[in-house]
Amino acid sequence: MATAPVAIAEWLGYATPPLWLEIVLDAVIAGVVVTIMLTTSALAGPWAKRKITAMFTDRIAINRNGPGGITTIAADAVRLMSKELIIPDGADRPAFDIAPAILPLSALLGFAVIPMGSGLQLADPEIGLVYVFAVSSIASVGMVVGGYASGSKYSLLGSMRSVAESIAYEIPLVVTAASIVLLAGTLRLSDIVAAQQGTLFTVAGVSIPAWYGFLNPFALALFLVTSLGEVGRNPFDIGEAGTELVGGYITEYSSIYFVLFFLGEFLHIFLSGAVITTLFLGGPAGPGPAWLGIVWFGVKIWAVFLFTQWCRAAIPRVRVDQMLEIGWKGLLVLSFANLVLTAIIVGVIHT
Amino acid sequence: MNQWIAVGVFAVVAASIPAVMMNTSRLLRPSVPEKGKETVYESGEVPTGGTRLNFNIQYYMVALLFVVFDIETVLIFPWTVIYQDAVGAAGLGSALAPMLVFIAVLVIGLGWAWRTGVIRWVSSADTEFNT
Questions:
Q1: What is the pLDDT of residues A222-280, one digit of tens each?
Q2: Closest partner residue to A350 among B19, B87, B114, by Cβ?
Q3: Of A81, A97, A186, which is closest to B81 when you measure between CB atoms?
Q4: pTM for the complete prediction?
Q5: CB A51 within 8 A of CB A273
Q6: DSSP codes joined into one string, A300-321
Q7: Could you tell me which chain B residue has the CA closest to the CA of A3?
Q8: How far apart are CA B92 and CA A348, in angstroms?
Q9: Residue A97: its chain B contacts at CB < 8 A?
Q10: Structural domains for chain B
Q11: What is the ipTM, given to two decimal places?
Q12: Which GO terms describe its cellular component (chain B) (predicted)?
Protein backbone atom coordinates (compact mmCIF):
# COMPACT_ATOMS: atom_id res chain seq x y z
CA MET A 1 0.00 0.00 0.00
CA ALA A 2 1.25 3.47 -0.86
CA THR A 3 2.08 5.96 1.85
CA ALA A 4 -0.20 8.95 2.31
CA PRO A 5 1.95 11.55 0.44
CA VAL A 6 2.35 9.17 -2.53
CA ALA A 7 -1.39 8.45 -2.60
CA ILE A 8 -2.27 12.16 -2.56
CA ALA A 9 0.29 12.92 -5.30
CA GLU A 10 -1.24 10.22 -7.48
CA TRP A 11 -4.72 11.56 -6.77
CA LEU A 12 -3.49 14.98 -7.91
CA GLY A 13 -2.25 13.36 -11.12
CA TYR A 14 1.50 13.30 -10.47
CA ALA A 15 3.25 9.97 -10.92
CA THR A 16 6.55 11.58 -9.88
CA PRO A 17 5.74 14.92 -8.23
CA PRO A 18 8.24 17.82 -8.29
CA LEU A 19 10.39 18.20 -5.19
CA TRP A 20 8.51 21.23 -3.81
CA LEU A 21 5.17 19.40 -3.99
CA GLU A 22 6.69 16.33 -2.38
CA ILE A 23 7.99 18.41 0.53
CA VAL A 24 4.64 20.24 0.91
CA LEU A 25 2.68 16.96 0.95
CA ASP A 26 5.14 15.41 3.41
CA ALA A 27 4.85 18.46 5.67
CA VAL A 28 1.03 18.34 5.60
CA ILE A 29 0.91 14.65 6.50
CA ALA A 30 3.65 15.16 9.12
CA GLY A 31 1.51 17.90 10.64
CA VAL A 32 -1.51 15.57 10.75
CA VAL A 33 0.49 12.75 12.38
CA VAL A 34 2.11 15.08 14.93
CA THR A 35 -1.26 16.67 15.77
CA ILE A 36 -2.93 13.30 16.31
CA MET A 37 -0.12 12.00 18.50
CA LEU A 38 0.16 15.23 20.51
CA THR A 39 -3.59 15.31 21.17
CA THR A 40 -3.47 11.66 22.18
CA SER A 41 -0.47 11.88 24.46
CA ALA A 42 -0.60 15.45 25.77
CA LEU A 43 -4.35 15.84 26.31
CA ALA A 44 -6.10 12.47 26.42
CA GLY A 45 -3.14 10.57 27.92
CA PRO A 46 -2.74 12.48 31.20
CA TRP A 47 -6.52 12.70 31.55
CA ALA A 48 -6.94 8.95 31.10
CA LYS A 49 -4.02 8.30 33.42
CA ARG A 50 -5.65 10.29 36.22
CA LYS A 51 -9.08 8.78 35.63
CA ILE A 52 -7.82 5.20 35.38
CA THR A 53 -5.64 5.52 38.49
CA ALA A 54 -8.62 7.00 40.34
CA MET A 55 -10.80 4.06 39.30
CA PHE A 56 -8.19 1.58 40.51
CA THR A 57 -7.90 3.33 43.87
CA ASP A 58 -11.64 4.03 44.28
CA ARG A 59 -11.51 7.79 43.87
CA ILE A 60 -13.22 10.23 41.49
CA ALA A 61 -10.31 12.30 40.08
CA ILE A 62 -10.84 15.49 38.04
CA ASN A 63 -14.49 16.19 37.16
CA ARG A 64 -15.15 19.93 37.41
CA ASN A 65 -14.14 21.52 34.09
CA GLY A 66 -15.54 20.16 30.84
CA PRO A 67 -16.89 16.65 30.25
CA GLY A 68 -15.24 14.41 32.84
CA GLY A 69 -12.82 17.19 33.70
CA ILE A 70 -10.88 16.92 30.44
CA THR A 71 -10.32 20.68 30.02
CA THR A 72 -8.43 20.65 33.32
CA ILE A 73 -5.56 19.10 31.36
CA ALA A 74 -5.53 21.96 28.84
CA ALA A 75 -5.61 24.44 31.71
CA ASP A 76 -2.75 22.57 33.36
CA ALA A 77 -0.69 22.86 30.18
CA VAL A 78 -1.22 26.64 30.04
CA ARG A 79 -0.53 26.93 33.77
CA LEU A 80 2.77 25.03 33.50
CA MET A 81 3.86 26.99 30.41
CA SER A 82 3.28 30.32 32.16
CA LYS A 83 5.20 29.32 35.31
CA GLU A 84 8.57 30.76 36.15
CA LEU A 85 11.49 28.74 34.87
CA ILE A 86 13.93 28.14 37.69
CA ILE A 87 17.49 27.37 36.65
CA PRO A 88 19.29 25.79 39.62
CA ASP A 89 22.73 27.00 40.72
CA GLY A 90 24.65 23.96 39.56
CA ALA A 91 23.02 23.81 36.12
CA ASP A 92 25.29 23.22 33.18
CA ARG A 93 23.96 25.28 30.31
CA PRO A 94 23.15 24.97 27.44
CA ALA A 95 22.95 21.20 28.10
CA PHE A 96 20.24 21.92 30.69
CA ASP A 97 18.11 23.58 27.97
CA ILE A 98 18.71 21.03 25.21
CA ALA A 99 17.85 17.90 27.21
CA PRO A 100 14.06 18.51 27.51
CA ALA A 101 13.69 18.81 23.73
CA ILE A 102 15.44 15.48 23.02
CA LEU A 103 12.91 13.25 24.76
CA PRO A 104 9.70 14.28 22.89
CA LEU A 105 11.63 14.63 19.62
CA SER A 106 12.96 11.07 19.74
CA ALA A 107 9.48 9.68 20.45
CA LEU A 108 7.79 11.77 17.74
CA LEU A 109 10.34 10.69 15.12
CA GLY A 110 9.26 7.09 15.61
CA PHE A 111 5.70 7.85 14.48
CA ALA A 112 6.93 8.85 11.01
CA VAL A 113 6.97 5.23 9.83
CA ILE A 114 4.07 3.71 11.79
CA PRO A 115 1.15 2.57 9.57
CA MET A 116 -1.84 4.08 11.37
CA GLY A 117 -4.56 2.74 9.10
CA SER A 118 -6.91 4.52 6.70
CA GLY A 119 -3.83 5.16 4.55
CA LEU A 120 -2.24 7.41 7.15
CA GLN A 121 1.44 6.59 7.01
CA LEU A 122 4.02 9.25 6.26
CA ALA A 123 6.97 7.15 5.16
CA ASP A 124 7.53 3.46 4.62
CA PRO A 125 11.28 2.84 4.38
CA GLU A 126 12.58 -0.67 3.91
CA ILE A 127 14.21 -0.68 7.36
CA GLY A 128 11.24 0.84 9.20
CA LEU A 129 11.50 -1.37 12.30
CA VAL A 130 15.21 -0.69 12.83
CA TYR A 131 14.53 3.03 12.33
CA VAL A 132 11.89 3.03 15.11
CA PHE A 133 14.26 1.35 17.57
CA ALA A 134 17.11 3.64 16.55
CA VAL A 135 15.24 6.92 17.09
CA SER A 136 13.43 5.84 20.25
CA SER A 137 16.71 4.91 21.96
CA ILE A 138 17.96 8.51 21.51
CA ALA A 139 15.77 9.24 24.56
CA SER A 140 18.47 7.88 26.91
CA VAL A 141 20.74 10.69 25.70
CA GLY A 142 18.14 13.25 26.78
CA MET A 143 17.84 11.61 30.19
CA VAL A 144 21.56 11.44 30.85
CA VAL A 145 22.21 14.99 29.61
CA GLY A 146 19.32 16.34 31.70
CA GLY A 147 20.36 14.41 34.80
CA TYR A 148 23.98 15.49 34.60
CA ALA A 149 23.31 19.11 33.65
CA SER A 150 20.86 19.68 36.52
CA GLY A 151 23.67 19.56 39.06
CA SER A 152 21.45 17.80 41.60
CA LYS A 153 22.25 14.48 43.24
CA TYR A 154 18.72 13.17 42.73
CA SER A 155 18.92 13.98 39.05
CA LEU A 156 22.30 12.33 38.68
CA LEU A 157 21.17 9.14 40.40
CA GLY A 158 17.93 9.10 38.42
CA SER A 159 19.65 9.49 35.06
CA MET A 160 22.25 6.82 35.91
CA ARG A 161 19.46 4.43 36.83
CA SER A 162 17.49 5.29 33.69
CA VAL A 163 20.47 4.54 31.49
CA ALA A 164 21.17 1.27 33.33
CA GLU A 165 17.56 0.35 32.70
CA SER A 166 17.49 1.40 29.05
CA ILE A 167 20.57 -0.62 28.21
CA ALA A 168 19.35 -3.65 30.15
CA TYR A 169 15.96 -3.78 28.43
CA GLU A 170 16.82 -2.64 24.93
CA ILE A 171 18.56 -5.90 23.91
CA PRO A 172 15.62 -8.21 24.86
CA LEU A 173 13.27 -5.76 23.14
CA VAL A 174 15.16 -5.78 19.85
CA VAL A 175 15.84 -9.54 19.94
CA THR A 176 12.13 -10.25 20.51
CA ALA A 177 11.29 -7.97 17.57
CA ALA A 178 13.82 -9.93 15.51
CA SER A 179 11.84 -13.10 16.19
CA ILE A 180 8.82 -11.41 14.58
CA VAL A 181 10.95 -10.44 11.59
CA LEU A 182 11.76 -14.16 11.22
CA LEU A 183 8.03 -14.79 10.76
CA ALA A 184 7.38 -11.81 8.51
CA GLY A 185 10.62 -11.88 6.53
CA THR A 186 10.74 -8.08 6.20
CA LEU A 187 11.58 -4.95 8.19
CA ARG A 188 9.09 -2.74 6.31
CA LEU A 189 6.30 -2.00 8.78
CA SER A 190 3.49 -1.99 6.21
CA ASP A 191 4.62 -5.43 4.99
CA ILE A 192 4.71 -6.73 8.59
CA VAL A 193 1.10 -5.55 8.97
CA ALA A 194 0.14 -7.06 5.61
CA ALA A 195 1.67 -10.41 6.64
CA GLN A 196 -0.77 -10.59 9.58
CA GLN A 197 -3.97 -10.22 7.55
CA GLY A 198 -4.78 -13.91 7.06
CA THR A 199 -6.81 -16.19 9.30
CA LEU A 200 -4.94 -18.35 11.78
CA PHE A 201 -7.76 -20.81 12.45
CA THR A 202 -11.52 -20.81 12.95
CA VAL A 203 -13.16 -21.88 16.19
CA ALA A 204 -16.96 -22.30 16.19
CA GLY A 205 -17.45 -19.80 13.39
CA VAL A 206 -15.15 -17.21 14.97
CA SER A 207 -12.02 -16.77 12.89
CA ILE A 208 -8.88 -15.88 14.81
CA PRO A 209 -6.73 -13.52 12.71
CA ALA A 210 -3.10 -14.44 12.07
CA TRP A 211 -1.76 -11.66 14.27
CA TYR A 212 1.70 -12.45 15.58
CA GLY A 213 0.37 -11.93 19.09
CA PHE A 214 -1.86 -14.99 18.59
CA LEU A 215 0.78 -16.91 16.64
CA ASN A 216 3.45 -16.37 19.29
CA PRO A 217 1.82 -15.14 22.53
CA PHE A 218 5.08 -15.78 24.40
CA ALA A 219 6.85 -13.15 22.29
CA LEU A 220 3.97 -10.71 22.89
CA ALA A 221 4.22 -11.17 26.68
CA LEU A 222 8.00 -10.77 26.55
CA PHE A 223 7.74 -7.65 24.40
CA LEU A 224 5.08 -6.08 26.66
CA VAL A 225 7.19 -6.56 29.80
CA THR A 226 10.37 -5.40 28.10
CA SER A 227 8.80 -2.27 26.66
CA LEU A 228 7.49 -1.36 30.12
CA GLY A 229 11.13 -1.45 31.20
CA GLU A 230 12.39 0.38 28.13
CA VAL A 231 10.05 3.36 28.58
CA GLY A 232 10.55 3.25 32.37
CA ARG A 233 6.95 2.63 33.43
CA ASN A 234 5.87 0.88 36.62
CA PRO A 235 6.94 -1.55 37.91
CA PHE A 236 10.22 -0.53 36.27
CA ASP A 237 10.05 3.22 36.93
CA ILE A 238 13.19 3.28 39.08
CA GLY A 239 14.61 6.16 37.03
CA GLU A 240 11.99 8.46 38.52
CA ALA A 241 10.95 6.55 41.62
CA GLY A 242 8.91 9.25 43.33
CA THR A 243 9.37 7.78 46.79
CA GLU A 244 13.14 7.30 46.49
CA LEU A 245 14.52 9.95 44.18
CA VAL A 246 11.87 12.72 44.24
CA GLY A 247 11.61 12.72 40.46
CA GLY A 248 14.88 11.33 39.16
CA TYR A 249 16.26 13.23 36.20
CA ILE A 250 13.31 15.67 36.14
CA THR A 251 13.81 16.82 39.77
CA GLU A 252 15.22 20.25 38.87
CA TYR A 253 13.09 20.90 35.82
CA SER A 254 10.21 23.34 36.09
CA SER A 255 7.84 25.21 33.78
CA ILE A 256 7.97 24.31 30.08
CA TYR A 257 10.98 22.01 30.52
CA PHE A 258 8.93 19.85 32.87
CA VAL A 259 6.08 19.82 30.32
CA LEU A 260 8.47 18.63 27.61
CA PHE A 261 9.83 15.78 29.75
CA PHE A 262 6.31 14.80 30.74
CA LEU A 263 5.15 14.95 27.12
CA GLY A 264 8.14 12.91 26.01
CA GLU A 265 7.33 10.16 28.47
CA PHE A 266 3.71 9.95 27.35
CA LEU A 267 4.79 9.95 23.70
CA HIS A 268 7.14 7.07 24.47
CA ILE A 269 4.34 5.04 26.04
CA PHE A 270 2.19 5.58 22.96
CA LEU A 271 5.11 4.87 20.62
CA SER A 272 5.72 1.54 22.32
CA GLY A 273 1.96 0.92 22.07
CA ALA A 274 2.15 1.67 18.35
CA VAL A 275 5.09 -0.70 17.89
CA ILE A 276 3.30 -3.47 19.81
CA THR A 277 0.17 -2.87 17.72
CA THR A 278 2.14 -3.03 14.48
CA LEU A 279 4.21 -6.09 15.35
CA PHE A 280 1.75 -8.19 17.31
CA LEU A 281 -1.82 -6.93 16.98
CA GLY A 282 -2.21 -6.68 13.21
CA GLY A 283 -1.69 -2.92 13.02
CA PRO A 284 -4.88 -1.14 11.97
CA ALA A 285 -6.66 -4.40 11.03
CA GLY A 286 -10.14 -5.03 12.39
CA PRO A 287 -13.70 -5.82 11.38
CA GLY A 288 -15.55 -3.37 9.16
CA PRO A 289 -14.41 -1.37 6.11
CA ALA A 290 -10.76 -0.42 5.61
CA TRP A 291 -11.29 3.29 6.33
CA LEU A 292 -12.06 2.34 9.94
CA GLY A 293 -8.40 1.32 10.27
CA ILE A 294 -7.34 4.35 12.26
CA VAL A 295 -10.12 3.71 14.78
CA TRP A 296 -8.90 0.16 15.33
CA PHE A 297 -5.34 1.41 15.56
CA GLY A 298 -6.47 3.88 18.24
CA VAL A 299 -8.33 1.15 20.13
CA LYS A 300 -5.22 -1.04 20.16
CA ILE A 301 -2.75 1.61 21.31
CA TRP A 302 -5.20 2.64 24.04
CA ALA A 303 -5.47 -1.00 25.11
CA VAL A 304 -1.69 -1.07 25.55
CA PHE A 305 -1.89 2.24 27.45
CA LEU A 306 -4.56 0.76 29.72
CA PHE A 307 -2.24 -2.19 30.34
CA THR A 308 0.59 0.14 31.42
CA GLN A 309 -1.78 1.95 33.81
CA TRP A 310 -3.03 -1.36 35.15
CA CYS A 311 0.57 -2.36 35.93
CA ARG A 312 1.11 1.05 37.51
CA ALA A 313 -1.81 0.53 39.87
CA ALA A 314 -1.28 -3.15 40.61
CA ILE A 315 2.44 -3.97 40.75
CA PRO A 316 4.92 -2.54 43.28
CA ARG A 317 8.16 -1.07 41.98
CA VAL A 318 11.15 -3.40 41.71
CA ARG A 319 14.43 -2.48 43.41
CA VAL A 320 17.29 -1.27 41.26
CA ASP A 321 19.30 -4.49 41.69
CA GLN A 322 16.20 -6.58 40.94
CA MET A 323 15.66 -4.50 37.79
CA LEU A 324 19.16 -5.33 36.59
CA GLU A 325 18.70 -9.04 37.33
CA ILE A 326 15.27 -9.25 35.66
CA GLY A 327 16.72 -7.60 32.55
CA TRP A 328 20.05 -9.40 32.13
CA LYS A 329 19.36 -12.77 33.73
CA GLY A 330 15.66 -13.19 32.93
CA LEU A 331 14.41 -11.32 29.91
CA LEU A 332 17.64 -11.51 27.87
CA VAL A 333 17.88 -15.30 28.24
CA LEU A 334 14.16 -15.72 27.50
CA SER A 335 14.36 -13.50 24.42
CA PHE A 336 17.25 -15.56 22.99
CA ALA A 337 15.33 -18.77 23.71
CA ASN A 338 12.35 -17.26 21.89
CA LEU A 339 14.51 -16.27 18.91
CA VAL A 340 16.15 -19.69 18.54
CA LEU A 341 12.86 -21.58 18.97
CA THR A 342 11.10 -19.35 16.44
CA ALA A 343 13.99 -19.83 13.99
CA ILE A 344 13.79 -23.63 14.35
CA ILE A 345 9.99 -23.71 13.92
CA VAL A 346 10.00 -21.33 10.94
CA GLY A 347 12.88 -23.31 9.41
CA VAL A 348 11.09 -26.66 9.79
CA ILE A 349 7.91 -25.20 8.22
CA HIS A 350 9.76 -23.75 5.24
CA THR A 351 11.73 -26.86 4.30
CA MET B 1 9.04 9.74 -3.99
CA ASN B 2 11.90 9.25 -1.57
CA GLN B 3 10.90 7.90 1.85
CA TRP B 4 13.79 9.60 3.61
CA ILE B 5 12.75 13.06 2.37
CA ALA B 6 9.45 12.43 4.17
CA VAL B 7 11.31 11.36 7.33
CA GLY B 8 13.49 14.47 7.10
CA VAL B 9 10.46 16.75 6.70
CA PHE B 10 8.86 15.01 9.65
CA ALA B 11 11.99 15.62 11.73
CA VAL B 12 11.77 19.36 10.98
CA VAL B 13 8.06 19.46 11.92
CA ALA B 14 8.70 17.40 15.08
CA ALA B 15 11.66 19.57 16.13
CA SER B 16 9.54 22.70 15.75
CA ILE B 17 7.13 21.46 18.47
CA PRO B 18 9.53 21.79 21.44
CA ALA B 19 10.99 24.98 19.93
CA VAL B 20 7.56 26.62 19.59
CA MET B 21 6.56 25.51 23.09
CA MET B 22 9.77 26.86 24.64
CA ASN B 23 9.39 30.22 22.91
CA THR B 24 5.69 30.54 23.77
CA SER B 25 6.58 29.87 27.39
CA ARG B 26 9.36 32.49 27.22
CA LEU B 27 6.73 35.10 26.26
CA LEU B 28 4.30 34.04 28.99
CA ARG B 29 6.38 33.34 32.05
CA PRO B 30 7.68 35.78 34.66
CA SER B 31 11.31 35.83 35.78
CA VAL B 32 11.99 36.77 39.38
CA PRO B 33 15.36 35.21 40.23
CA GLU B 34 16.09 34.80 43.93
CA LYS B 35 18.95 33.11 45.73
CA GLY B 36 16.71 30.72 47.65
CA LYS B 37 14.83 29.55 44.59
CA GLU B 38 17.93 28.67 42.65
CA THR B 39 19.37 26.42 45.32
CA VAL B 40 19.76 22.79 44.31
CA TYR B 41 16.89 20.73 45.69
CA GLU B 42 17.87 18.40 48.50
CA SER B 43 14.54 17.86 50.24
CA GLY B 44 14.66 21.23 52.00
CA GLU B 45 18.13 20.80 53.51
CA VAL B 46 21.05 23.09 52.72
CA PRO B 47 22.84 21.29 49.85
CA THR B 48 26.06 19.56 50.88
CA GLY B 49 28.82 19.44 48.29
CA GLY B 50 28.48 19.49 44.54
CA THR B 51 27.47 16.78 42.13
CA ARG B 52 30.72 16.72 40.20
CA LEU B 53 32.14 13.96 42.37
CA ASN B 54 33.66 10.55 41.99
CA PHE B 55 30.70 8.28 41.88
CA ASN B 56 30.33 4.54 41.60
CA ILE B 57 28.14 4.13 38.53
CA GLN B 58 28.05 0.37 39.20
CA TYR B 59 27.76 -0.83 35.68
CA TYR B 60 30.59 0.14 33.34
CA MET B 61 31.06 -3.56 32.66
CA VAL B 62 27.32 -3.83 31.97
CA ALA B 63 27.72 -0.97 29.51
CA LEU B 64 30.53 -2.88 27.76
CA LEU B 65 28.29 -5.95 27.65
CA PHE B 66 25.55 -3.77 26.17
CA VAL B 67 27.81 -2.63 23.35
CA VAL B 68 28.59 -6.28 22.50
CA PHE B 69 24.94 -7.29 22.45
CA ASP B 70 23.83 -4.16 20.61
CA ILE B 71 26.23 -4.88 17.77
CA GLU B 72 24.99 -8.45 17.83
CA THR B 73 21.39 -7.28 17.24
CA VAL B 74 22.59 -5.31 14.22
CA LEU B 75 24.15 -8.52 12.87
CA ILE B 76 21.03 -10.60 13.62
CA PHE B 77 18.57 -8.39 11.72
CA PRO B 78 19.87 -9.10 8.17
CA TRP B 79 19.81 -12.81 8.96
CA THR B 80 16.18 -12.67 10.13
CA VAL B 81 15.14 -10.90 6.92
CA ILE B 82 16.64 -13.45 4.53
CA TYR B 83 16.07 -16.48 6.77
CA GLN B 84 12.90 -17.87 5.10
CA ASP B 85 14.41 -17.63 1.60
CA ALA B 86 17.71 -19.04 2.83
CA VAL B 87 16.01 -22.09 4.32
CA GLY B 88 14.27 -22.69 0.97
CA ALA B 89 17.46 -22.21 -1.06
CA ALA B 90 20.17 -23.79 1.11
CA GLY B 91 18.32 -26.01 3.56
CA LEU B 92 17.67 -25.71 7.29
CA GLY B 93 21.15 -26.69 8.47
CA SER B 94 23.19 -24.16 6.55
CA ALA B 95 20.71 -21.33 7.24
CA LEU B 96 20.38 -21.95 10.98
CA ALA B 97 23.64 -23.50 12.19
CA PRO B 98 25.97 -20.47 11.72
CA MET B 99 23.58 -18.22 13.64
CA LEU B 100 23.23 -20.83 16.40
CA VAL B 101 27.02 -20.87 16.77
CA PHE B 102 27.06 -17.05 16.85
CA ILE B 103 24.35 -16.90 19.53
CA ALA B 104 26.08 -19.68 21.49
CA VAL B 105 29.27 -17.57 21.66
CA LEU B 106 27.23 -14.67 23.02
CA VAL B 107 25.41 -16.83 25.55
CA ILE B 108 28.77 -18.19 26.77
CA GLY B 109 29.87 -14.56 27.17
CA LEU B 110 26.73 -13.77 29.13
CA GLY B 111 27.32 -16.84 31.31
CA TRP B 112 30.87 -15.65 32.02
CA ALA B 113 29.57 -12.17 32.97
CA TRP B 114 26.94 -13.78 35.16
CA ARG B 115 29.49 -15.98 36.99
CA THR B 116 32.03 -13.22 37.55
CA GLY B 117 29.34 -11.01 39.07
CA VAL B 118 29.46 -8.29 36.42
CA ILE B 119 25.68 -8.00 36.25
CA ARG B 120 25.22 -7.83 40.00
CA TRP B 121 24.32 -4.57 41.72
CA VAL B 122 26.95 -4.03 44.39
CA SER B 123 25.41 -2.92 47.67
CA SER B 124 26.89 0.20 49.21
CA ALA B 125 28.59 -1.75 52.05
CA ASP B 126 30.90 -3.37 49.47
CA THR B 127 31.90 -0.18 47.74
CA GLU B 128 34.11 2.72 48.57
CA PHE B 129 32.32 5.98 47.95
CA ASN B 130 34.75 8.74 47.19
CA THR B 131 33.34 12.19 47.68
A1: 999 999 888 877 788 877 776 777 777 888 888 888 889 888 888 999 999 999 999 99
A2: B87
A3: A186
A4: 0.90
A5: no
A6: HHHHHHHHHHHHHHHSPPPPHH
A7: B3
A8: 7
A9: 22
A10: 3-121 (1.20.58.1610)
A11: 0.85
A12: NADH dehydrogenase complex
